[in-house]
Design goal:
With about 600 residues, the chain is of the alpha+beta class. It has 16 helices and 31 strands. Helix 8 (about 265-275) crosses helix 10 (about 305-330), helix 9 packs parallel to helix 11 (about 340-355) and helix 11 runs antiparallel to helix 12. The two termini are about 30 Å apart. The structure holds zinc ion.
């Protein structure tokens, strides 16, 4: 269904509902308020482990007083944009259209297969999200952060208040590593000049444009939001002092992402920012993994790198804590929240925590668990407690987009396709589309695109599809780790053959998906000389492969009015929370939902 049709249909239905249907609904179903929160990378196996260790008291209480699923099965691919779109709409990627974090450009005929657009924006979403469903039935909705929400569609401007910060990033974060001399340490943030000058033994003064901030190392150690300009556009950032040595002047600063917080209502946006500030960004895992925070515990570090990871994440969490305080004072029937920080913890640390990671070190894992536990407590367990305290009358529904697992090595499917004669490389290390029949694109979701003639410069015709797919399948399933002989892919599924049952496919979706062997993370890099890279000391926390893998299962919990204590809905699917939330609100499921309202009442 195209967006225009959804709009027209919604409009008719909402007119029809203004009079009697709402009145009769509210008389037969108790009026409830619902909070729906998604914890990015809220892995079911990890929450189970932390409950067992006594480190997740809020989740243990929710399980006791409400509903706890055995697990929630994410979608193919088990990636943030695709899975969240299913969480919001109750539809599978084949139908909601957000098939990956990155997607081919539309229209396909005007763009090559490798040109990409974001899969996080509202323009790729073809199914109705729960916030529009609720508004269509007269409910007031607040959405603090949800993928596929921006640009705001404003279908129900008087009932949906929507905020977004993620789709409006002006500049990626940066580390500033240097020495504060007699003239200070100068750097730029976009078009804006910044300088650090030393003060006394333990703190420094940061000047950004006309603003000054005193920074001392420690928690939270980050400035309030600072206004800067990037390419002439005003945005905000926060700067944190990670390390400062007064004797030598040596300084390590983390400048967060430069972002713009936007909202459907300007006054509400200002009030939210006054309470919450802005995000720092999900910046910690990349710096930690790349050594930007210094040597890790696995590499003989002192624990300082882990401290910086935690502090950067807690600074980011301050926005979400403030957003919750703000939202709790506003009128809504449905509040949609998103919490990103466990994805940072997962990518940074789960390569060391997952006992199935090749080369797992249990002694190191115990040290790393204490780091993960602190992030979990502040960003997830305490957050659940805060929601229940600030919105005590609301029913709380907790989900996730996917879990997380540990990997040790990269492998390069495009090198396998090249060696099989399916992918042509140009001399610049990119793809030669004239000689390329299939390629692995984007992130870690295992999606293989045929270079089909429906794309600009495509070469694979419809009657060649079968043979090319067979050749790809053979090449991937034959690929081996040259050192150990381990197969690198354990399955390949076909959107033509398996798509309807698995919820994959659609105009901009891959033609095949492979499932990498656990322990090996697929990289979409071209022109790799090797099929498999060297083992990484700290491994990698990852997600993207088939969602049936235990470590990639997400969580589902619910508690509050309308939820029975001790409800155990078993294994649930990524499409089930949206119709469950609708049932709790006393309204029909979202227009395109194929999920079931879970038996938790
Ligand atoms: Zn992630």
């Amino acid at each position: 269904m195209r967006p225009r049709t959804v709009f027209a249909l919604s409009f008719v239905v909402s007119l029809a509902c203004v009079t009697s249907p709402i009145a009769s609904q509210t008389s037969s179903v108790p009026t409830r308020r619902v909070v729906l929160i998604s914890f990015d990378a809220g892995a079911d196996w990890i929450v189970d482990e932390l409950i067992a260790r006594g480190k997740a008291p809020a989740f243990a209480a929710v399980a006791r007083e409400g509903a706890q699923a055995d697990a929630m099965i994410s979608v193919i691919p088990s990636l943030t944009a695709a899975a969240h779109a299913s969480l919001w709409t109750g539809a599978f990627p084949r139908s909601h259209g957000a098939t990956d974090n990155s997607m081919p450009m539309a229209p396909a005929a005007a763009h090559t297969v490798i040109e990409r657009r974001s899969g996080y924006l509202s323009d790729v979403l073809r199914a109705e999200p729960i916030w529009d469903t609720a508004a269509r039935y007269g409910k007031r909705v607040m959405v603090i952060q949800a993928s596929n929400g921006f640009p705001f569609t404003n279908r129900f401007p008087d009932r949906v208040t929507h905020f977004d910060v993620y789709a409006n990033e002006l500049l990626r974060s940066a580390l500033v590593n240097g020495s504060v001399g007699p003239d200070g340490l100068a750097f730029t943030i976009g078009d804006t000049h910044a300088r650090v000058t030393g003060r006394d033994g333990s703190s420094v003064t940061l000047t950004v444009g006309d603003a000054h901030a005193a920074l001392a190392p420690g928690t939270p150690a980050f400035s309030a939001p600072l206004s800067v300009r990037v390419g002439g556009v005003e945005g905000q950032t926060r700067v944190g002092l990670l390390e400062y040595d007064a004797a030598t002047g040596r300084t390590l600063l983390l400048r967060g992402d430069v972002v713009r917080l936007v909202g459907t209502d300007a006054a509400a946006r200002d009030a939210l920012m006054a309470e919450a500030g802005i995000t720092v960004g999900e910046v910690g895992s990349g710096y930690y993994q790349a050594g930007g925070f210094g040597r890790t515990l696995a590499d003989g570090g002192t624990g300082a790198a882990e401290r910086h990871l935690v502090n950067a994440t807690l600074a980011n969490q301050q926005y979400f804590d403030g957003a919750l305080r703000y939202a709790a004072r506003q009128p809504w029937d449905l509040l949609v929240l998103y919490a990103p920080n466990m994805d940072v913890a997962g990518h940074a640390l789960v390569g060391m925590l997952d006992p199935d990671t090749p080369g797992h070190d249990p002694a190191l894992a115990e040290k790393i668990w204490s780091v993960y536990e602190e992030m979990f407590r502040r960003c997830m367990d305490d957050y659940v407690t805060a929601i229940r305290r600030l919105a005590p009358d609301a029913t709380l529904v907790i989900g996730a987009d996917h879990g997380v697992e540990g990997n040790r090595r990269w492998w390069y499917p495009n090198a396998v396709l090249r060696d099989a004669g399916l992918l042509g490389e140009n001399i610049k290390g990119g793809v030669d589309l004239a000689t390329t029949r299939a390629l692995f694109l984007y992130s870690h979701g295992g999606g293989i695109f045929l270079n089909s003639t429906r794309f600009k410069d495509g070469v694979v015709t419809d009657d060649q599809r079968r043979d090319v797919k067979a050749a790809v399948r053979h090449a991937l399933l034959s690929a081996r780790d040259p050192e150990t002989g381990t197969p690198l892919a354990r399955a390949v599924v076909d959107t033509d053959l398996d798509g309807e049952a698995l919820g994959i496919g659609g105009e901009f979706a891959p033609d095949l998906y492979f499932d990498p062997t656990p322990g090996y993370q697929a990289s979409a890099r071209f022109s790799s000389k090797v099929i498999v890279g060297p083992p990484l000391v700290i491994g990698m926390g990852a997600h993207g492969p088939f969602p049936t893998r235990r470590r990639l299962h997400g969580i589902f919990y619910a508690v509050g009015p309308g939820v029975r204590a001790g409800a155990r809905p078993g294994i649930v699917r990524q499409v089930d929370p949206a119709p469950t939330v609708a049932r709790l609100l006393g309204i029909p499921a979202p227009a395109n939902s194929v999920g079931r309202a879970l038996p938790i009442e």
